[in-house]
Amino acid sequence: MAEATTGSGLPKGFRSAEQGWPELSRIPHPPRRLPLLGDVLGASRRTPLQDSLRYARKLGPIFRRRAFNREFVFVWGADLAADMADEARFAKHVGLGIANLRPVVGDGLFTAFNHEPNWQLAHDVLAPGFSREAMAGYHPMMLAVADRLMDHWDRAVVTGRAVDVPGDMTKLTLETIARTGFGHDFGSFERSRPHPFVTAMVGTLTYAQRLNTVPTPLLIRRAARRNRDDIARLNSTVDDLVRARTASGGGEGDLLGRMLETAHPETGERLSPENVRRQVITFLVAGHETTSGALSFALHYLSRHPEVAERARAEVDRVWGATATPGYDQVARLRYVRRILDESLRLWPTAPAFAREAREDTVLGGDHPMRRGAWALVLTAMLHRDPEVWGADAERFDPDRFDPQAVRMRPAHTFKPFGTGARACIGRQFALHEATLVLGLLLRRYEFGSDPDYRLRVTERLTLMPEGLRLRLERRSPDAARRPPVSASGTVEGAPSDVRCPVHRAAN
Ligand code: HEM
């Protein structure tokens, strides 16, 4: 699949900012720019996003960076980002980081160019797989995978071992998407090392990110060879999975079943076997990396904010009562737990930027002319910290920012962890349901003890993850989980003051 790069090593169709922004010189860039190399002084190959956050604070709501022969524009001010959300004038841009994944997933849903027919076809075939009915069908499987995590964590409690949060969240979310989407079990919790699919996936994501920071892929030939092996591993894993399904049948209503069986409702077209392979890899990757990061950051903040954890536990105990298996509808009722997730995704949107391109010549924010096809990265991680929107204390973790009234007071398009427009995340509800359910279960079962010496470090490989996060767990007493905590005044915490009979809690 040589289509994705040109002889210069740049993705086909890549436009450096000089070509698209007639008044580029008015957009600030970091000081100490070097000829040929660009803005490399003080920048790290491993943390491009965190470097961009630093520059953003110094350079303002729109700025540019240059690495070798490529220049990019970054946008994060709320007004400019809102302008870029205008679907009439802007569309998704399959930019560097994403285009680098095309050798792996080609015209799969996430990496397809807007004009490629397989995007609409796959979108229409798969969208019902994320409907409310489909999600309710996935719910028992999500619960079953969460049980495996809790078995694993219970053993850690018994042996007094700290748990590896990002590692275990990755196992959980991979098993969840594999099981709900494709009826597959990677056996992640039974393995001492990551499944080879996960190793190959991390390899390809890391390689795709590296390509952004080298002048030509010729400099990383060994890594390119490893990447080819990784891609072969991903393909063969998925081919085995599809073969097994075709032989055994079943799986009606899951994503693979839809891909193999469903014709487009209007055109009657079906996905080709090659495209099915690309979509399965897309969903296995997109469906777990970002959610595992979101859960990991949320657990980090919960361990650092015991008062938030207590309030969330009170909610879980009140809404779920003693039921061992909360039902589908009981998950969306954990409103405070959901705010914790939103606030974690605000501070660390695990897909920390997305790219938008001008459909026609236009002027961004009434100030910056752009030619058709010119593009910029919306730096979500900084948009979510814009002090004009989030206040001078934007760095502070505070789930009450997502209290409905506070949300109503904020301008539109200021919280975008799932992207925007027609190409926004198709798995948003899936991710939020899974993550809220799992946080609820974990809050109900454990107290999270953090290592006081741990300082949050964030690793970047296209998505974000708290590096080296470990927690010491204690089991809550079964009684505590069954009974809503009672405050000194004798009222049930977290309960609205009207009803709440402690005997008939199920009615709450
Ligand atoms: C917290 C979890 C998640 C976050 C933060 C997230 C974030 C995003 C973002 C920002 C985009 C837009 C990218 C762009 O504009 O270039 C996107 C697209 C996408 N996401 Fe997610 N995602 C999450 C979970 C999931 C899950 C669970 C699935 C699948 C089950 C999924 C599948 C996809 C797919 C297929 C696309 C491409 C959609 C299209 O272009 O039509 N994501 N996601």
From TrEMBL:
<keyword id="KW-0274">FAD</keyword>
<dbReference type="Pfam" id="PF00067">
    <property type="entry name" value="p450"/>
</dbReference>
<dbReference type="GO" id="GO:0016705">
    <property type="term" value="F:oxidoreductase activity, acting on paired donors, with incorporation or reduction of molecular oxygen"/>
</dbReference>
<feature type="binding site" description="axial binding residue">
    <location>
        <position position="425"/>
    </location>
    <ligand>
        <name>heme</name>
    </ligand>
</feature>
<keyword id="KW-0349">Heme</keyword>
<dbReference type="InterPro" id="IPR002401">
    <property type="entry name" value="Cyt_P450_E_grp-I"/>
</dbReference>
<keyword id="KW-0408">Iron</keyword>
<keyword id="KW-0813">Transport</keyword>
<comment type="similarity">
    <text>In the N-terminal section; belongs to the cytochrome P450 family.</text>
</comment>
<keyword id="KW-0521">NADP</keyword>
<keyword id="KW-0285">Flavoprotein</keyword>
<dbReference type="GO" id="GO:0020037">
    <property type="term" value="F:heme binding"/>
</dbReference>
<dbReference type="InterPro" id="IPR036396">
    <property type="entry name" value="Cyt_P450_sf"/>
</dbReference>
<protein>
    <submittedName>
        <fullName>Cytochrome P450</fullName>
    </submittedName>
</protein>
<dbReference type="GO" id="GO:0005506">
    <property type="term" value="F:iron ion binding"/>
</dbReference>
<dbReference type="InterPro" id="IPR001128">
    <property type="entry name" value="Cyt_P450"/>
</dbReference>
<keyword id="KW-0503">Monooxygenase</keyword>
<comment type="similarity">
    <text>Belongs to the cytochrome P450 family.</text>
</comment>
<dbReference type="InterPro" id="IPR017972">
    <property type="entry name" value="Cyt_P450_CS"/>
</dbReference>
<feature type="region of interest" description="Disordered">
    <location>
        <begin position="475"/>
        <end position="508"/>
    </location>
</feature>
<keyword id="KW-0288">FMN</keyword>
<dbReference type="GO" id="GO:0004497">
    <property type="term" value="F:monooxygenase activity"/>
</dbReference>
<keyword id="KW-0560">Oxidoreductase</keyword>
<keyword id="KW-0479">Metal-binding</keyword>
<dbReference type="InterPro" id="IPR050196">
    <property type="entry name" value="Cytochrome_P450_Monoox"/>
</dbReference>
